[in-house]
Design goal:
Helices cover 91% and strands 0% of the residues. The chain is built from four helices and no strands. The longest helix is centred in the last third of the chain and has 56 residues.
Length: 191
């Protein structure tokens, strides 16, 4: 029986310790809850005084130092948010650039695949096409070169005409300014 008595006594001890642990955990939970309430009340108090600070109310030096720390922290947050926005914008720009490059790559790939379905490049065909394009370019460039030369000559003529017109305008203005003012005197006499 001694064995069962000891077993019973051990069960009571474990039970008491378990009850004690549960009670302690319950009290710790209530303490943490109460601490959370205190932090909430402190936050409410801080928000109350912060609202007064924002409206311009002055506090003692220590409170003002804390408010200044908050303002500095808010400025730092705004700066970091601006940096985040810039990084995102740069990423989007890089993404758009890569997309444009990929579009060009795939367009060239489709063109080459259509021209060379087996994947082998026919250099003779490419050289012939390049020569044709170069000949077309030289022909077109020759036509536009003569037009460009004519255009340059016309711009020179226009420039000379504009210079002469400005000179004539200045000369007329000087003539009007140098005329004797007797005309005004005659008008004054006739009145």
């Amino acid at each position: 029986m001694a064995f069962f008595d000891r077993l019973n006594e051990m069960a009571k001890t474990v039970s008491e310790k378990t009850n004690d642990s549960l009670e302690i955990n319950k009290l710790i939970g209530e303490i943490n809850l109460t601490k959370g309430n205190i932090q909430s009340f402190q936050r409410e108090l801080g928000e109350h005084f912060w609202a007064k600070f924002v409206t311009g109310e002055q506090f003692d030096d220590e409170a003002m130092m804390i408010c200044d720390k908050i303002v500095a922290a808010q400025d730092k947050i705004h700066d970091m948010e601006a940096q985040i926005a810039q990084i995102k914008a740069e990423g989007e720009a890089r993404k758009a650039e890569r997309e444009a490059e990929l579009k060009q790559f795939y367009a060239a790939r489709r063109k080459l695949t259509g021209e060379f379905p087996d994947g082998k490049v026919d250099m003779k065909k490419l050289t012939e096409e390049y020569d044709e394009l170069e000949q077309a370019h030289n022909t077109t460039y020759g036509e536009f070169k003569t037009v460009r030369d004519d255009l340059h000559r016309l711009w020179k003529v226009k420039s000379c005409v504009d210079t002469a017109a400005r000179f004539n305008e200045r000369t007329e203005e000087q003539l009007h300014q140098n005329r004797p003012q007797t005309r005004h005197k005659k008008e004054d006499i006739s009145r």
